[in-house]
Amino acid sequence: MQRFFSTITKNPGRLFQQTVIVTGSGSGIGRALALGFAKEGANVGVTGRTIKALDETVEMIKKQGGNAMSAFMDVTNEKSIKEAVDKVTDKYNDRLDVMVMNAGIQHIDPIHKLDQKDWRKVLSVHLDGSFLCTKEAVKKMYPQKSGSLIYIGSVHSKRASKLKAPYCSAKHGMLGLARVVAKEAAEYNVKANLILPGYVFTPLVEKQIPEQAKELGISEKEVIEKVMLQDRFNSSFISLNDLSEIAIFFATFPSLAISGQSLIASHGSFFV
Ligand code: NAD
């Protein structure tokens, strides 16, 4: 009833009172999505490994008048995921409407220098993490017969780049995972979609500029211009606002017509 009244008395936002969890939301894309969801009225679970960074995101959301709480979550650890999901859903209406698998890391090395431990680390965060978070999220979504799972893949879910074997493999894997989940989850009215961004200027990208420059033997400026922003309509990084709008679109799309889909945001640098 409260939901009904709110919709007619003021603009409640497209995600009014929905519970949303974003992994790795103490920085970069995750933080931007958390802020965007909160602006649309969602109660946001800001999760990740660094409490100070998570609390900063929560503070930013509260300053803009939204609702959010932080919860520690290491996406490679099943117990920690369960505890965080329970903590957030206990506080917010015992439901989970949207879960965003965003946490990620990068590792730059050519195959012949790549340690198996670095390979495993990247796969563990992106791929094991997406699997484990999905498993926990659907335990809440299936009984409520609704929900939206959003995976932050990458253009590297569909293309390859030198020096990024673990990342490309993990991101391709997330595409396969989300497609399987879409098929299984449809029966419960739960959607699974991916956002595949090109380069977005976040800490993850900033860190790899000098690393790529060193490995490729070019300047940092050349890494930005010739590797990262090559072939774009307008030589710019993807904006956090664009990604937030795409995430809200997937979160609010009203039917299963769009599930198992992947949307590339790349300023034209990559089509399929
Ligand atoms: P970022 O480094 O700002 O954010 C990644 C977040 O994940 C960090 O907050 C980090 O603490 C968190 N994280 C890492 N390991 C974790 C773990 N085990 N458990 C929980 N949290 C963990 O980088 P970003 O660019 O915002 O990246 C977010 C996502 O977007 C990643 O999945 C990345 O692969 C993807 N992506 C980024 C770009 C880009 O250009 N920045 C492009 C395509 C896809």
TrEMBL record:
Task: Note one Pfam family from the annotation.
Answer: adh_short
* GO MF terms held by the record: 3-oxoacyl-[acyl-carrier-protein] reductase (NADPH) activity
Gene3D superfamilies reported in the protein's UniProt record: NAD(P)-binding Rossmann-like Domain
Query: What is the uppermost EC class here?
Result: oxidoreductase
User: What parts of the sequence cross the membrane?
Assistant: none
InterPro entries of this UniProt entry?
Answer: NAD(P)-bd_dom_sf, Sc_DH/Rdtase_CS, SDR, SDR_fam
Instruction: Please provide the Gene Ontology terms (biological process) for this protein.
Output: monocarboxylic acid metabolic process
Q: What is its EC number?
A: 1.1.1.100
Task: Provide the catalytic activity annotation.
Answer: a (3R)-hydroxyacyl-[ACP] + NADP(+) = a 3-oxoacyl-[ACP] + NADPH + H(+)
Top-level taxonomic group: Eukaryota
CDD domains registered for this protein in UniProt? SDR_c (cd05233)
What PANTHER family would the database entry show? 3-OXOACYL-(ACYL-CARRIER-PROTEIN) REDUCTASE (PTHR42879), 3-OXOACYL-[ACYL-CARRIER-PROTEIN] REDUCTASE FABG (PTHR42879:SF2)
Q: Which family does it belong to?
A: Belongs to the short-chain dehydrogenases/reductases (SDR) family.
User: What protein name applies here?
Assistant: 3-oxoacyl-[acyl-carrier-protein] reductase
